[in-house]
Design goal:
By secondary structure, the chain is mainly alpha-helical. The protein contains 29 helices and 2 strands.
Length: 439
């Protein structure tokens, strides 16, 4: 049975009269002694119907018919009492009647939602004032994840409600289950006025969530330029590490997400130790990882090194290696097939030639899976270098290793990457210096 849809055949006649606001019919039914506590398929009783549908006179009659406080406090199957329903619809008069009759302003639903939270969520400031006058608490958790009314008001950017909650003693440093404060919420969703009010009230601009993220980091990540400017002018620390490994900063977020104007703001304020320092990660990696050419250009123009430290976080020895890998991932199978078709396979070591020939003849071969680590640009360079060498040189590992190149590039010329990827046994030089398959 659906607890959210109202089935007409499950609603009592008293409940239907209250739903329709039919005072005349309801009075007749009550005189006949009809029950006021019969629930429908949702657990709704007539008092819930009257509260939700703003049937003021019907509500008064129902409360008079069953004057016990327990009646107005009864809950639906989802844990909503009449006050929750009235507040959710912004029915000020209904809420007043219920509160004066003894309704609890701090009662919660099954999801731990309070009437005050619903008033904030629906922007009902008059209802909110009414609840506060009757003792509703502005602090404590008002939802299952620990998100409370000040979080919600900050998320919605409702300046008037934020000010009212703060005036009534709302804790501006309250955290939800993830360690997120209202100021963090305002920064995350770009609510500049909310952010300004919270900062003016003394909220900590360098607060950190459980994952160590800061408001400045999240604003930089989401691209909220004005929020970043406000946070920086209010003392936000651009060098406060935003993860457990102590390497990620707001500058990394801006670079990865492509927010060039925010990156321009952060570069002169961020300590350059992140550029090449050990155990750190250069924002150059972040720009490459995000594929953000404009941000990469800005970083390089401002002196960030293209030869950054080895990055164990991303698993690359340099930003160039990461760039090559991203190039690989963007190459289609058709492009790789085209490259192989125009490659003189006789330039390849015999074992590699044999392996590729066999793979290419197999219609089920997923090319991208088997040679995805061959970047198209570097592969063409490799072919060009090998085309310059004489055929007898190509069969000698020693000649390749004599080239004035780093050992990694020498191995690349020998197709070591392709061999390893396809689990081909290691090559070894025989007594004539020629390459053969190792036994």
């Amino acid at each position: 049975m659906d607890f959210t849809e109202a089935y007409s055949d499950t609603c009592s006649t008293v409940g239907l009269a209250a739903r329709e606001g039919n005072v005349k019919i309801l009075r007749k039914l009550l005189k006949k002694g009809r029950c006021v506590d019969v629930a429908d398929n949702r657990g709704w009783m007539p008092v819930h119907e009257a509260a939700y549908h703003n049937s003021v006179e019907c509500l008064r009659m129902l409360i008079h018919a069953d004057s016990s406080e327990n009646y107005i406090k009864t809950k639906t199957f989802e844990g909503f009492c009449a006050l929750h329903l009235a507040v959710s619809q912004g029915h000020w008069k209904i809420a007043q009647i219920l509160l004066e009759a003894g309704a609890d302003p701090n009662t919660t639903t099954l999801e731990e939602t309070t009437p005050l939270f619903l008033a904030v969520e629906n922007g009902q400031i008059d209802v909110l004032r009414l609840l506060l006058r009757h003792g509703a608490s502005v602090n404590g958790s008002h939802s299952m994840c620990g998100w409370n009314s000040l979080h919600q008001a900050s998320f919605q950017g409702n300046a008037e409600i934020i000010k009212l909650l703060l005036e009534k003693g709302a804790n501006k440093e309250c955290q939800d289950d993830f360690g997120i404060t209202p100021l963090f919420v305002a920064a995350q969703y770009g609510k500049l006025e909310s952010l300004s009010i919270l900062i003016s009230s003394g909220a900590n601009v360098n607060c950190q969530a459980l994952d160590k993220a800061t408001p400045l980091f999240i604003a930089a990540q989401e691209g909220h330029l004005e929020c970043v400017e406000l946070l920086l002018s209010s003392g936000a620390d651009p060098d406060l590490y935003c993860n457990e490994d102590n390497w990620q900063l707001p500058i990394h977020a801006a670079a990865q997400m492509g927010h060039a104007k925010i990156l321009d703001l952060l570069i002169p304020l961020t300590n350059r130790v992140c550029d090449t320092g050990p155990d750190k990660v250069s924002p150059v990696y972040s720009a490459v990882f995000g594929g953000r050419e404009e941000c990469l250009e800005i970083l390089l123009q401002n002196g960030y090194s293209p030869n950054a430290q080895t990055c164990l976080i991303f698993g690359f020895s340099s930003p160039m290696c990461m760039a090559f890998q991203k190039e690989i991932d963007s190459v289609s199978d058709d492009t790789l097939i085209f490259t192989l078709e125009f490659t003189n396979w006789k330039r390849l070591p015999p074992v590699v030639e044999k392996m590729l020939s066999a793979r290419a003849s197999n219609s089920s071969w997923v090319l991208q899976q088997h040679i995805a680590s061959v970047p198209c640009l570097t592969h063409l360079c490799r072919l060009e270098i090998r085309s310059i060498l004489k055929p007898e040189h190509l069969r000698s590992e020693g000649v390749i290793h004599q080239l004035p190149l780093p050992r990694s590039l020498q191995n690349y010329l020998l197709y070591e990457d392709v061999l390893k990827m396809n689990a081909v046994p290691e090559l070894a030089a025989n007594h004539d210096g020629e390459i053969s398959e190792a036994t």
